[in-house]
Specification:
The protein is an all-alpha fold and 1128 residues long. Helices cover 56% and strands 0% of the residues. The protein has 61 helices and no strands. α27 packs parallel to α29. The N terminus and C terminus are likely disordered.
C-alpha cells in the first residue's frame, strides 16, 4: 500500500475520534440528587411514621399527614438536582396538598364505612374513588412533570395543560407513580387504620418508594403540546373516513337508511345530508328493532340545525305522517321547555297540521302550553290550532298551562279566547288551585276572566277542594272571597274542610274557618276530619289539637268501627295518639322522653310487637298485635329474633302469630309464602315448617320439595326425621316433579341423601327416573357414584335405564367401574337380556330364561321377582330354560327352589319340555330334583309316552330307571309301546327303533296290549293310524315287526276297520312287510269290515306286486305258524 494512502487513513481515524469526543461532551449528564432536600424528605417520612405509630389519635394523624405532605416537595427538589431555590418548593407543595386533600375528602365516607361494616357498597365506593383519583392524575400528569422537573409559574403550566395531549398510555404510568405518595400518606395519616408495627413498616416502604416514584416521574419525556396542524389533519382524516364509509355503504346498496337514522339521532347533520346525497331514503321508517321510534322528520324537528328538516321537506316528506302516535310538529313542541319557534314555523309553513293529537289526546298547543315562550303558541294559533281541545284526561291547553304555573301562557290563551270553564273538561281554576305552589296569581287571573269560583270537574271537586287538599291557604282565601261554596261535597262526600284535614294542612284548615264550614261533616265512609287527619301522610299534633279544639268527637268511629286514635296507633304515630287521648297507654319505648314537653317519637306497632315478642312480653305483644295488619304479621313469621333475623321464627312464636291473625299464605316480593321460602333453608327451618304443616298450611308450589331436599344436601344432613318431614311434605301437596333452583330434580337429591322411603314414594308418583341434575347425572349415576347398592337396585326395579349417559359421556356402569365396585357394576351390566325400559314385571323372569341369561335371571331373582312367575303362555322360567336347553339357568332355578311340577297352560312341564327338546342332561337334573314322572300331559299322556313317541330310547331308559310306569295308558288306552309303534312307522332310523323297542320290551311292555278299538303296537307299527300311501321305510318297519314277533306279538288282531296286519301292509303297498307277515303265518284270506281280503285291498290301491304275493303258495308250510296255531 502506498505511504500517502496510509497517512490519509490515519488522519481520517483521528478526525472521527475528535468528533466522537465532541458528541460525548455535548450530551448532558443526569444531575446528581441534592443531599440536603433528600435528607429532609427522609426525615419527614420518618416523622410521618412516628406521628401515626407513637403519637396516635387525631393529633398523630394530623402530624403524619403534614409530614407526608412536606416530604413530597423535598424529594422532588432533591431529585431535580443542582441548586434549587426554596421558593420552588411552594408550587409543588400546593399541588400535593390539593391532591391529598381531595383524596381524603373523597375517601372519608367510603373508607370509614368499609372499616366499620365491610359492606359491598362501601367496597365499591372505595374502589370508585380510587379510580377517580387515578383518572384525575392521568389527565393532569404533565402539570406535575413540569412543576417538579422544570419549576416555574404554576398558572402558566395550568394554561399550557389545555393544549397538551394527555391521552397516551404513558400518562397512566405517570398517574400510578403519583398515586404511590398519595396512598402512602393516606395509610400513614388515617387514624386507627393500622397497628403501630405495621405503620412503621409502611413508613419504611414509603421512604424507599417515594424517592423512586419522583425519580421515575422526572425521567419520563416531557409531554408535547397538540399542534393546530395535527387537529386539522385529524378532522380531515375523520371527514375522509366518513366519506369513505358513506361511499362503501352506497356501493353495497344497503345500510344507508340505518346509518341515516343513527346520524340523525346523534345530531350529525353533515353526515345525514351526505347520506341523503348518497341515496338514503328520506321516507324510510325507523328500524323496527330500534328503541327510538321517532321518524326522520321528528328527529330533524328537534335539532338546532334546521338544514336536515328543510332537506326532508324538499324531498317531499309528509309532515303529517303519524308514527308511534306522534307527528313532527308534536315532537318539536313537546321536547323543549324553551320552545322551538323556528322549527315550528318551518313545519307550519310547509303544511303541518296543528290539530293532530298524540296518543294521550294532546295537540301541539297542549305541549306549547308548557313552554316558556308564548311565541310557539302564537304560531300554532295563527295556523288554525283549536284553542280549547281537551285531551283524554279532560285538560285543555289552558288547564295544562295553569297546572304548570305558566301564567304567561295562561294569560296569552285567555286573551286569545280560551274558556276557563268548558263543558266536559277540567275547569282551569281547579288546575290552578291544585298546583305545586301556593300562588294566587293564576287563580286571580282566571277569576278576572270570568272563571266560576264553584266550577266542578267530573269527580264533583271544586277549586276549593283542590286548594284545601294541596294546603294552599292563600288560594283558599282568594277562592272563598270569590264566592266558592265551603259546604260543597265531591262524589266521595268530602267537603273542602275534610280535604284540608285529609291533606294534613293546618294553615288551609284555618283559612277555611272564614267560611264557617261544617266541622262535624263526615264523608261517604263515615270519617270526620279528625279521622282523616290521622290517616294523612304527615299530620302534626298541632293539627290534631286544632281539630279537637273545634269540638270534634275523639270517640267517633267510622263505618269500619275504627276511631281516630285507632288509626294513629296503627300507624305508630304516638304523638298524635297522645294529642287525642292522654290516657292511652303508650309503649314504654316511646313514653319516657328526655324532655317532658317533647312529643313521643313515632314508632310503627310492628316494631313494638317485634320487641315485645323478643322480650317475651305476651301482654304487650297481644296489645300491639291488634294494631298490626295481618299481612305485616305474616312478615314476622319470616323473622327470628332481633339478633337472628335471617332464620325463621321459633315454633312458639309462629303459633302465637297464627293465633293472632297472621296470614300464612301472604307472599313476599318473590311470590313465595313463608313456608315455601323456608323450604330452601332445609334442616334449620324444619321446626318452623312442621309447625305450619300442623296448622294445615299447604306447601304447594313449583319445586317445593326440591328446595327442601337441596337445603338438606347443602347442610349435609340426612336424618331420618328430615326424611319423614319430606314424606309429609309430599303427602300434603309439595311438588315432587319440578327441579330445584339449581336444576336438581327431587329424585336425584333423594338419592344423594340416601332416603329409600322417599325414593319409593317419588317413583310411585311417576317422577322421571332418568332426569338429569345440574351436572348432567341421573339418579342411577348418583347411586353408582355414592356406592348405594340398595338405591341402585331400587331404581333398576322401577325401570331406570343403565344406558343413559351423563354430561361427560359416562354411563352408570362406567361410574361403578371407575370407583372399583365390581359388585355394583354387576347390577348395571345387562348386555344379553337388556332391561325393558319400564318397571320390571314377573314375566321378565321367563323372558330372561328364554335367552339363557343366567346372570340376568340371578339378578332378577335377587331383585325380588317370584321364581315361579309365568309368562303369557303360563310357562315358568324353569320350563323355558328346560325347553331351551339352558342347563345353567335350570341349575340356578332349581337351586333357588323353583317348582319342577308347575305346568304351562298347554300342560307342558319342565320335564316334558326337556324331553321334547331332547335335553338329556336337563332331564337327568330334573329327575334328580324330583320331577314327577307320572304327571300327565294333555290327553293323559305321560312323559314316557312322549319320549317313546319321539323315539328317544335313552330318555326312555332314564325314565324307566327312575320308575316310570311302563303299563300306563293315556286317554285312548295307548301305552308307551303303542307310542313307539307310532314312531316306528314314520322313522327312518332302524337302530333307534330297535333300541326303543328293546328298552320298552325289556322293561316289561306288553306287545299285545290293545288300545281303544283293539289297536295293538303291531298294528300301529304297520300304519294303522296313517293315511293310505304314507311313505315309510320298509327296512325300519320290518326290523320293528321282527322285534315284536320275536316277543310273541299276535297277528290275529284287527283295528276298528277290520284291518289286520296284511290289510295294512296291502293298504300302504309294503311288499317286504307283506312277505314277512305271510312268512310269519298271517292269514291271507282274512276279511275286513267290508268283506275285503288283503289281496283285494292291494288291487284296489294298485299295488299289483303286493297282490301277487297272495297267489297260491308252492312252498312248505311255515312251521312258525303251525307252532303258533298249536299254542293257540
Amino acid at each position: 500500500m502506498p505511504e500517502d494512502a496510509v497517512e490519509a487513513i490515519a488522519d481520517d481515524f483521528a478526525d472521527d475520534l475528535d468528533a466522537s469526543a465532541a458528541v460525548v461532551a455535548t450530551v448532558p449528564r443526569p444531575p446528581r440528587p441534592a443531599v440536603a432536600p433528600l435528607a429532609i424528605g427522609l426525615a419527614l417520612t420518618a416523622l410521618a411514621g412516628f406521628g401515626g405509630a407513637v403519637v396516635g389519635g387525631v393529633g398523630g394523624a394530623l402530624l403524619a399527614g403534614l409530614a407526608a405532605l412536606g416530604a413530597q416537595p423535598a424529594f422532588a427538589l432533591a431529585l431535580r438536582g443542582g441548586r434549587v431555590p426554596p421558593r420552588e418548593a411552594l408550587p409543588v407543595a400546593a399541588l400535593w396538598a390539593l391532591a391529598l386533600l381531595a383524596t381524603c375528602v373523597l375517601l372519608a365516607w367510603p373508607l370509614s364505612a368499609l372499616r366499620q361494616g365491610g359492606t359491598l357498597g362501601a367496597a365499591l365506593a372505595t374502589s370508585a374513588v380510587a379510580g377517580l383519583v387515578l383518572i384525575g392524575l392521568w389527565r393532569t400528569w404533565p402539570l406535575w412533570r413540569w412543576q417538579e422537573g422544570e419549576g416555574g409559574d404554576l398558572r402558566a403550566h395550568g394554561r399550557a395543560l389545555v393544549d397538551t395531549d394527555t391521552r397516551d398510555w404513558r400518562g397512566l404510568g405517570a398517574a400510578a407513580l403519583l398515586a404511590l405518595p398519595l396512598l402512602g400518606a393516606v395509610l400513614l395519616a388515617w387514624p386507627d387504620l393500622m397497628s403501630p408495627a405495621l405503620r412503621w413498616a409502611v413508613a419504611g416502604a414509603c421512604a424507599l418508594a417515594w424517592p423512586l416514584a419522583h425519580r421515575a416521574l422526572l425521567r419520563l419525556p416531557s409531554p408535547s403540546p397538540v399542534r393546530d396542524e395535527d387537529l386539522l389533519q385529524a378532522a380531515l382524516d375523520e371527514d375522509d373516513a366518513e366519506a369513505a364509509g358513506i361511499d362503501a355503504l352506497g356501493a353495497a346498496g344497503e345500510g344507508l337508511d340505518a346509518a341515516l337514522y343513527d346520524a340523525a339521532r346523534h345530531g350529525r347533520v353533515e353526515r345525514t345530508l351526505a347520506l341523503l346525497d348518497a341515496g338514503a331514503n328520506p321516507h324510510a321508517p325507523p328500524p323496527a328493532k330500534a328503541r327510538d321510534q321517532r321518524s326522520l322528520a321528528m328527529l330533524a324537528a328537534v335539532l338546532p340545525d334546521l338544514r336536515l328538516l328543510r332537506t326532508l321537506i324538499a324531498h317531499g316528506v309528509d309532515l303529517n305522517d303519524v308514527h308511534a302516535n306522534m307527528t313532527p310538529l308534536i315532537a318539536a313542541t313537546r321536547d323543549s321547555w324553551h320552545g322551538r319557534p323556528e322549527a315550528v314555523m318551518t313545519l307550519l309553513a310547509n303544511g303541518a297540521d296543528p290539530r293532530v293529537p298524540d296518543a294521550d289526546g294532546n295537540t301541539p298547543l297542549h305541549h306549547a302550553a308548557r313552554s316558556a315562550d308564548p311565541g310557539v303558541a302564537a304560531l300554532l294559533r295563527d295556523a288554525g290550532a283549536e284553542i280549547d281541545p281537551p285531551n283524554r284526561e279532560g285538560l285543555t291547553p289552558l288547564a295544562l298551562a295553569c297546572t304548570a304555573g305558566n301564567w304567561r301562557l295562561a294569560r296569552f290563551l285567555l286573551e286569545r279566547g280560551a274558556k276557563p270553564d268548558l263543558p266536559g273538561a277540567v275547569p282551569a281554576l281547579l288546575a290552578a288551585a291544585g298546583g305545586d305552589e301556593d300562588d294566587p296569581v293564576g287563580v286571580q287571573l282566571l277569576l278576572r276572566h270570568k272563571a266560576r269560583a264553584d266550577a266542578r270537574d267530573a269527580r264533583g271537586r271544586s277549586a276549593l277542594h283542590e286548594a284545601a287538599y294541596a294546603g294552599h291557604a292563600e288560594i283558599v282565601g282568594v277562592v272563598l272571597g270569590a264566592g266558592a261554596d265551603v259546604h260543597a261535597r265531591d262524589h266521595a262526600q268530602r267537603t273542602p274542610f275534610l280535604e284540608a284535614a285529609r291533606g294534613g294542612h293546618l294553615a288551609a284548615l284555618q283559612a277555611l274557618q272564614v267560611g264557617r264550614p261544617d266541622v262535624h261533616a263526615t264523608d261517604a265512609n263515615g270519617r270526620h276530619a279528625l279521622i282523616l287527619a290521622c290517616r294523612a301522610d304527615a299530620p302534626t299534633p298541632a293539627l290534631i289539637r286544632a281539630l279537637l279544639d273545634l269540638g270534634l268527637d275523639r270517640e267517633h268511629a267510622d263505618d269500619d268501627g275504627r276511631r281516630a286514635v285507632d288509626y294513629a296507633a296503627a300507624a305508630g304515630r304516638w304523638a298524635l295518639v297522645a294529642a287525642i287521648d292522654s290516657d292511652y297507654g303508650l309503649p314504654a319505648s316511646v313514653g319516657g322522653a328526655d324532655e317532658p314537653d317533647a312529643p313521643p317519637p313515632d314508632r310503627p306497632p310492628l316494631d313494638l310487637l317485634r320487641e315485645a315478642l323478643d322480650a317475651g312480653d305476651g301482654e304487650a305483644a297481644s296489645r300491639w298485635a291488634t294494631l298490626v295488619d295481618p299481612v305485616d304479621l305474616a312478615g314476622l313469621l319470616r323473622e327470628g329474633t332481633l339478633h337472628n333475623g335471617a332464620a325463621p321464627a321459633s315454633p312458639a312464636r309462629i303459633d302465637w302469630l297464627l293465633r293472632h291473625g297472621a296470614n300464612p299464605d301472604a307472599r313476599d316480593a318473590a311470590g313465595d309464602t313463608p313456608l315455601f321460602a323456608w323450604l330452601a333453608q332445609g334442616p334449620s327451618a324444619a321446626p318452623a315448617v312442621q309447625t305450619l304443616l300442623r296448622r294445615g298450611v299447604s306447601p304447594a308450589g313449583a319445586g317445593g320439595l326440591a328446595r327442601f331436599l337441596a337445603g338438606c344436601v347443602a347442610a349435609d344432613r340426612a336424618d331420618r326425621g328430615l326424611e319423614r318431614l319430606a314424606l309429609d311434605l309430599v303427602e300434603r301437596g309439595a311438588d315432587p316433579f319440578a327441579a330445584s333452583p339449581a336444576g336438581d330434580p327431587p329424585l336425584a337429591l333423594a338419592v344423594r341423601l340416601g332416603w329409600g322411603a322417599l325414593i319409593d314414594r317419588l317413583i310411585a308418583m311417576g317422577v322421571a327416573l332418568d332426569a338429569r341434575d345440574a351436572h348432567g347425572m341421573t339418579a342411577l349415576h348418583l347411586a353408582a357414584a355414592l356406592r348405594r347398592e340398595g338405591t341402585l337396585k331400587q331404581l333398576i326395579v322401577h325401570g331406570a335405564s343403565p344406558n343413559v349417559r351423563a354430561a361427560d359421556g359416562q354411563t352408570p356402569l362406567g361410574v361403578a367401574l371407575s370407583s372399583g365396585r365390581r359388585d355394583l357394576a354387576d347390577w348395571l351390566d345387562w348386555r344379553h337380556w337388556p332391561l325393558p325400559g319400564r318397571p320390571l314385571r314377573a314375566t321378565d323372569l321367563p323372558a330372561a330364561a328364554v335367552l339363557g341369561d343366567a346372570d340376568a335371571v340371578r339378578r332378577l331373582l335377587d331383585l325380588g321377582l317370584p321364581i315361579d312367575a309365568v309368562d303369557a303362555q303360563g310357562c315358568t322360567a324353569l320350563l323355558r330354560a328346560a325347553g331351551g336347553g339352558h342347563r345353567g339357568v335350570v341349575e340356578l332355578l332349581l337351586a333357588r327352589g323353583a317348582d319342577p311340577a308347575l305346568a304351562a297352560r298347554t300342560g307342558a312341564t319342565p320335564l316334558s319340555a326337556a324331553v321334547s327338546m331332547r335335553q338329556l342332561d336337563i332331564v337327568d337334573r330334573l329327575l334328580a330334583a324330583g320331577a314327577t314322572l307320572e304327571q300327565r300331559l294333555p290327553g293323559d299322556v305321560t312323559v314316557l309316552m312322549l319320549a317313546a313317541a319321539l323315539g328317544l330310547p335313552d330318555v326312555c331308559t332314564r325314565l324307566l330307571a327312575a320308575g316310570a310306569n311302563i303299563a300306563a295308558t293315556d286317554a285312548q288306552g295307548l301305552t308307551p309301546l303303542h307310542c313307539a309303534g307310532l314312531y316306528g312307522f314314520t322313522t327312518r332310523d332302524r337302530r333307534r327303533l330297535v333300541a326303543l323297542f328293546d328298552a320298552l320290551l325289556l322293561a316289561g311292555a306288553d306287545p299285545d296290549a290293545q288300545a281303544a278299538g283293539g289297536v295293538t303296537p303291531l298294528l300301529l307299527l304297520l300304519g294303522a293310524r296313517a293315511e293310505p300311501g304314507t311313505a315309510c321305510d320298509e327296512d325300519v318297519v320290518v326290523a320293528g315287526l321282527v322285534r315284536l314277533l320275536d316277543e310273541g306279538a299276535t297277528l290275529r288282531v284287527r283295528d276298528p276297520r277290520g284291518f289286520g296286519p296284511l290289510h295294512l301292509a296291502a293298504l300302504h303297498g309294503l311288499l317286504r312287510v307283506t312277505r314277512e307277515l305271510l312268512q310269519a303265518g298271517a292269514e291271507p284270506e282274512a276279511r275286513d269290515a267290508l268283506n275285503r281280503t288283503p289281496r283285494e285291498v292291494a288291487v284296489m290301491r294298485g299295488f299289483v306286486d303286493v297282490a301277487a304275493e297272495f297267489g297260491p303258495r308252492t312252498g312248505d308250510v311255515s312251521m312258525a305258524r303251525f307252532l303258533r296255531d298249536r299254542e293257540s
